[in-house]
Amino acid sequence: MFGLSITLISGCATTGANLVSIGKQDLEAAPICCKTLATANAAKLPIGMTTVTIDKSAHAFDFGGNKAFFKLYELPPFTKTYSMVITSTPNGNLVDLALFLPKVTLYDEQFKPTRHFDEKTLRNRGNSVERTVFINPQNATEKYVDIYGSDLSSSIERAYSMVTVTPVFSGPYMVNVYGGQDGKSTIRSAPSGSFNLEVSLP
Questions:
Q1: All structural domains of the chain with their residue ranges
Q2: Cβ(148)–Cβ(68) below 8 Å
Q3: Residue 52, helix vs strand vs coil
Q4: Would you tell me how many other CB atoms lie within 10 Å of the CB of residue 195?
Q5: Quick one: which H or E segment has residue 184?
Q6: pLDDT tens, 7-47?
Q7: Are 117 and 104 in contact (CB under 8 A)?
Q8: Average pLDDT of the chain?
């Protein structure tokens, strides 16, 4: 499901395992917001590019045995086909990353589910994952979209390649010697994180 290609990384003391652990503690402590999503607060779907943070400040809900933080949006009245692009990026360090894997469910006005997209069909975009959802004429009755976290028990390993640059001095001259390093990185499903939401209206 994931691909990992890293060519440059800055130092970071925070590991994916620590981020997941903190996120799990926050999620366990968070109260369930409501019995049904119909009574949850829905924000208007933002137009353009927006960065959305999913953490303990977000509401939590029990999605059929999967407690998760979520963001609920009210869709604009349908006029023409438009799209929503959700891109989630990892946090952590080179060998240990935490990644919020978004699930997406759309509902009609009575909060009856109309479509669902799980984490298994996310597209790889370098270190990130992405999903595009189109609202077409046949989806005109859809009223809400809910973006929430996936199962937290999953983790995978992926190979990475890192470019190294070593300055070597020869008399008054300096030459950069390029090398490489291969290794493995663990990507952990996290209950919190951030994603970019890009909505393109006609």
A1: 16-153+187-200
A2: yes
A3: strand
A4: 24
A5: strand 173-190
A6: 333 334 588 889 999 999 999 999 999 999 999 999 999 99
A7: yes
A8: 84
Walk across the sheet containing 128-135 and list its strands.
48-54, 193-200, 82-88, 128-135, 123-125
Residue 164: pLDDT over 60:
no
Architecture of domain 16-153+187-200: Sandwich (2.60)
- Which of these, 37, 100, 49, lies nearest to 74 by C-alpha position? 37
Cα torsion angle, 49, 26, 16, 188, sign: negative
Query: For residue 197, which of 80, 32, 83, 95 has the smallest C-alpha distance?
Result: 83
Report the predicted TM-score, pTM, of the whole model to 2 decimal places. 0.79
Whose tokens are 């799990």? That residue is 24
Upper half-sphere CA count for residue 133 (Cβ side, 13 Å): 24
CA atoms within 13 A on the CB side of 3: 7
Tokens of 69: 């933080």
